[in-house]
Design a protein that fits this description.
The complex is a heterodimer of chains A (296) and B (392).
Chain A: H1 3-34, H2 41-56, H3 61-84, H4 92-114, E1 132-134, E2 137-139, H5 141-163, H6 165-175, H7 177-182, H8 187-213, H9 219-234, H10 239-259, H11 265-279, H12 288-293
Helix pairs in contact in A: 1-5, 1-6, 1-8, 1-9, 1-10, 2-3, 2-4, 2-8, 2-9, 3-8, 5-6, 5-8, 6-8, 9-10, 9-11, 10-11
Chain B: H1 2-24, E1 26-33, H2 40-59, E2 67-74, H3 79-91, E3 97-99, H4 104-117, E4 120-123, E5 138-140, H5 145-158, E6 163-169, H6 172-184, E7 191-198, H7 206-214, E8 219-223, H8 228-238, E9 245-247, H9 254-260, E10 268-271, H10 287-301, H11 307-326, H12 331-339, E11 344-345, E12 350-351, E13 367-372, E14 375-378, H13 382-391
Parallel strand pairs in B: 1-2, 1-3, 3-4, 4-5, 6-7, 6-8, 8-9
Antiparallel strand pairs in B: 10-13, 11-12, 13-14
The chains are: A mainly alpha (296), B alpha/beta (392).
């Protein structure tokens, strides 16, 4: 294998990996605030892409994306208020069933609204065939958009959780709900906020990746599985680790193609998920002690 | 109170009177189509086409005075679902015939069920294995994938290309096409340098096309029906693959071209004549059928007609002709009537069925098409194309 080929696989792997990571971050935010895995996270990604594509017919691209992100955030808030907020101390199993139900509901609604066809936003820069070439390695500008936007999201999130009052309140809630409430923080509002935040990030991801992957009413499920794998792989709740885990999985998948038939690509990721669950349930970057303290 | 009773009695009388007459004058036809899911590009236009046709037939008084009742089941391209729907249609609904399924994998799953239950099956899927070996009750309307492969090989030869990199989705259609390519390559002087199957739900195929390009492919042949075939060409161009890209006859939906945008320019694929109905010479035997179907479909559903809807059109057409010929809606009579149908002008080509040939089409049903400025056009004569593609 020569160096160009190696680099080309690497670029492909980084593209896959970043997409997975951005979905994993959505999982993490809600997990941090509530201790539950929101299986409708993939649907937020799909909704963002779909709404943006529809809006793009009547407004310019940046406005369409902004409006789609806001619309998905409202949907995220509504979902939390309608389905989650009124539950007192729900069990993990019950939450899993509820979020899976929500994901099926959103998918069917999307099928009715948009039909079964695939859609995509136009490439943000250039067209389908525009590439940057470094020697024999070719990169689509959209890949740079995806990695750039993901990087900005992670930086902003870290800033939000570490340095803003609201972010600290959310962290306090996830660390000790009762203590946080005694300090006057509304845990319920923090959970709503976490849904709004993860819906917004999912939707933004959906917009940025749609030129590469397309969106379809059922494209959320596949993304959710990969995103979930990455979230577990990195250690639940840790967004920076999710990026590292996402890149790792993406690159492994990409190189696996050179060694075995590419139809086995998903086998690779599922095998990794199982191995991690057996050997290191806290994830590669998560600490076992911290995860023991969590109730999941 | 009294009026209600009278009304009830009247209603009951009507129902009693109407029921036998209704049952006698209806032909039940089932359809198993992938209306949603990864193959919805096929199933959705097929379902719409059938609904349109049946409405039309019933408006004109039905077939031989018998109204048609259409029962469409959405399999979502899932072979297991197709199987249970097939059993349901045969055992509970007692349909005369089943149109579909949309995909080859589903059709192969229910082929033996239809055969055992002696239910007529008119598949809208392309793989050759559906009708080879021949099953007595199983027919299909799309052209042979074998002929599509040969058509592509002939084109490659004309363009002086030898090394082909093959990509196929791991569905029934993809697998069948890949097998045909690998089987027929040697005798047509084509060398398959790499052959990859990918997941039908794949969203990025950069690694796969990189592998094919690295193997030294002069041309890429992709065999799939899912959105992935738009992704393949996009990714191939992005990694700097400059050679020609061939697609199967599964590319015959303008939505794929729209999805791939600029990357779709110059893609070459074999297809029926529906997509180029406008430019067919006036005296071409298919011209009238194609333009009528295209016009009806497009004015009714406000979207461009695709060859896939055409496959369902042909299935319904063949069934109608056979029932008319048999004179009654009887399974055995209709089945043997289909085997005797000759010169039926459909959207996919001109059907000539025999007891050995349950497809009824030959390689002449295909034309080579290409994409120019986002539109399907006839590929110009090979000798002219040759220079152009080499220069790229």
């Amino acid at each position: 294998m020569n160096i160009e080929l190696l680099s080309q696989y690497l670029v492909a792997g980084i593209t896959y990996g970043t997409i997975y990571a951005i979905v994993a971050i959505g999982f993490n935010i809600i997990y941090n605030a509530t201790g539950i895995i929101n299986f409708a996270q993939g649907e937020f990604v799909m909704l963002g892409g779909m709404i943006a594509v529809s809006l793009h017919t009547i407004m310019p691209l940046p406005a369409a994306i902004l409006a789609a992100v806001l619309a998905t955030m409202i949907i995220g808030a509504l979902i939390e208020v309608i389905f989650i907020r009124w539950l007192d101390n729900p069990s993990v199993l019950r939450m899993i069933i509820i979020t899976i139900g929500i994901s099926i509901f959103i998918r069917e609604a999307a099928l009715h609204i948009w039909g079964e066809g695939v859609r995509a936003l136009p490439y943000f820069t250039g067209t389908e065939v525009t590439v940057f070439s470094i020697g024999d390695v070719h990169i689509s500008p959209q890949v740079l958009w995806v990695t750039g936007v993901s990087a900005v999201i992670v930086l902003l999130l870290n800033f939000f959780f570490d340095y803003t009052l609201l972010g600290r309140q959310m962290r306090a809630c996830s660390a000790n709900r009762d203590a946080a409430q005694l300090c006057g923080i509304s845990a319920k509002n923090m959970v709503t906020l976490s849904f709004i935040l993860s819906a917004g990030i999912g939707a933004l991801a959906g917009c940025v990746v749609s030129p590469i992957t397309y969106v379809q009413y059922d494209s959320g499920t596949g993304l959710a599985i990969k995103g979930f794998t990455v979230a577990i792989l990195g250690g639940l709740g840790n967004s920076t680790a999710a990026i590292a885990a996402g890149l790792l999985l993406g690159i492994i998948e990409s190189f696996s193609v050179s060694l075995m038939p590419s139809a086995f690509k998903d086998v690779v990721s599922i095998t990794i998920l199982l191995l991690i669950l057996f050997v290191r349930p806290s994830g590669i970057f998560g600490s076992a002690e911290a995860s023991r303290l969590k109730e999941f | 109170m009294k009026t209600v009773k009278i009304l009830a009695v009247l209603l009951l009388t009507f129902m009693v009177l109407a029921a036998p007459a209704f049952a006698k004058d209806t032909i039940k036809i089932g359809a198993i189509l992938a209306v949603t899911g990864p193959a919805s590009f096929l199933g959705a236009p097929e379902a719409k086409t059938l609904e349109m046709l049946v409405e039309d037939i019933n408006k004109k008084g039905g077939i031989k005075g018998m109204k048609v009742e259409l029962i469409i089941k959405d399999s979502g391209a899932n072979p297991e679902k197709a199987l249970s729907f097939a059993k349901q249609l045969i055992e509970e609904d007692k349909v005369l015939a089943i149109i579909g399924p949309s995909t080859s994998g589903e059709t192969m799953k229910i082929k033996s069920v239809a055969e055992e239950a002696k239910a007529i099956l008119l598949s809208c899927a392309a793989a050759e294995v559906i009708v080879n070996p021949v099953a007595k009750y199983v027919f299909k309307t799309p052209q042979m994938d074998k002929d599509a492969v040969i058509k592509i090989f002939q084109q490659m030869k004309a363009m002086k290309l030898v090394k082909a990199g093959v990509l196929a989705s791991n569905t029934g259609f993809g697998k069948a096409g890949k097998e045909q390519i690998e089987k027929l390559a040697a005798e047509h002087g084509i060398q398959v340098v790499a052959s990859e199957a990918y997941d039908s739900k794949a969203t990025d195929l950069t690694a796969e096309v990189t592998k094919v390009k690295a193997a030294g492919a002069e041309a890429i042949i992709n065999w799939s029906i899912e959105p992935a075939q738009a992704i393949v060409i996009k990714n191939a161009r992005q990694i700097g693959f400059k050679g020609p890209i061939f697609q199967s006859h599964g590319f015959g939906n303008i939505k794929y071209v729209e999805a791939a945008g600029e990357a779709a320019e110059g893609v070459i694929f074999p297809a029926g004549r529906l997509l180029i109905a406008d430019v067919l010479p006036k005296n071409h035997p298919q011209k009238a059928v194609l333009t009528k179907y295209k016009k009806d479909y497009e004015s009714k559903f406000k979207e461009e007609a695709s060859t896939f809807g055409g496959h369902a059109y042909d299935a319904m057409l063949i069934l109608t002709k056979a029932i008319e010929k048999a004179g009654k809606a009887d399974k055995e009579a209709v089945r043997s009537a289909i085997e005797g149908l000759k010169g039926v002008v459909g959207t996919a080509g001109i059907f000539n069925f025999t007891a050995q040939d349950h497809n009824g089409l030959d390689i002449n049903a295909f034309e080579m098409l290409t994409v120019k400025k986002g539109k399907f056009v006839l590929l110009s004569a090979p000798s002219q194309k040759e220079g152009a593609s080499k220069k790229k």
